[in-house]
Specification:
Blueprint lengths: L1 H25 L3 H21 L14 H24 L8 H4 L2 H5 L8 H36 L4 H21 L9 H26 L3 H20 L7 H4 L5 H33 L1
Helix pairs in contact: 1-2, 2-6, 3-8, 3-9, 3-11, 6-7, 6-8, 6-9, 7-8, 8-9, 8-11
């Protein structure tokens, strides 16, 4: 646990310095945002050097394709359930306007407004490639270091809550400062955001358990940013208090995220149990 505490302290110290810079007028600065997103990764590397831990143990091998595919698809499932129910119940309306006018579609040769499918897949592909560069810095810390270290001591649910809550609180200054998230009041934004990231953390922990690599976290985070808080939010009209329910700070979406994560975890546990019983039978 000494390494975990050291990592959390270093992350907090570096982040505080960057937030002071942001609050001094650099909230829209690309270097400031990039440095902030790489803070967990840098902190993990510093901690590894301090304790002479092997950086090659951070889970660099990609492993099987299955967990990587799940990583990208799970936020899509959460988005379809969360946003879809909000659209169906008329708390908000579905719109294609922004998707049809994505600059991503123009980048691959379409005139705007482009066909909906062209806009959709252009952002899913091109924006994902760009987003990976940014989220890698975070996931080197969360997926490569913190989650595996905590799993040596705690269960999957406890590890997920610890990482998810710290991950959320790490963003709080930006949300409180008004330069991250959507325009919902803090009494909705902070708990909603914490629930959403705790659900994502739960999925990440299970995926790391399955694959033993950090790339599942990178892909999950990328899909989360591009699809859940990007494409689906942009297909949702800000009607009344719709974003109290969905978006990255939406309480309802947080509940859906956690429920989907629990179902995914239970399926994973059943497969492990079945595999174990199969091995015992074979030996007998």
């Amino acid at each position: 646990m000494k390494q975990v505490i050291t990592f959390l302290v270093i992350t907090s110290i570096i982040s505080t310095g960057i937030f002071i810079w942001m609050f001094s007028g650099a909230e829209d600065s690309a270097p400031a945002v990039l440095l902030m997103m790489y803070t967990p990764g840098v902190s993990a590397l510093i901690t590894a050097v301090i304790y002479r831990d092997k950086i090659r143990n951070f889970g660099w091998r990609s492993g099987k394709a299955g967990p990587l595919l799940y990583s990208f698809l799970l936020p899509v499932i959460v988005s379809l359930l969360g946003y879809g129910l909000v659209w169906l119940t008329k708390f908000s309306d579905f719109t294609t306007e922004e998707v049809c006018n994505y600059r991503w579609a123009k980048m691959i040769g379409f005139d705007l407004p482009a066909p909906f499918i062209a806009g959709l897949f252009s952002k899913m592909i091109l924006a994902s490639f760009m987003t990976v560069i940014f989220v890698f810095g975070e996931e080197l810390g969360w997926s490569g270091f913190l989650t595996p270290k905590l799993r040596k001591v705690f269960s999957v649910p406890v590890t997920s809550v610890i990482v998810g809550v710290f991950w959320a609180v790490w963003h709080f200054p930006a949300i409180i400062g008004g330069f991250y998230g959507v325009s919902t009041p803090l009494w909705v934004a902070l708990p909603g955001f914490t629930m959403v990231l705790t659900g994502a953390s739960f999925m990440r922990t299970v995926l790391i358990e399955k694959s033993k690599n950090l790339w599942v976290g990178v892909l999950l985070h990328t899909s989360h940013n591009v699809i859940l808080m990007g494409i689906f939010k942009e297909m949702t009209l800000d009607k009344g208090k719709a974003f109290y329910l969905v978006s990255e700070t939406g309480v309802f979406l947080g509940v859906i995220y956690i429920l989907v994560a629990i179902v995914f975890w239970r399926i994973h546990m059943r497969r492990i149990s079945s595999s174990t019983r199969g091995c015992i039978t074979t030996k007998i």
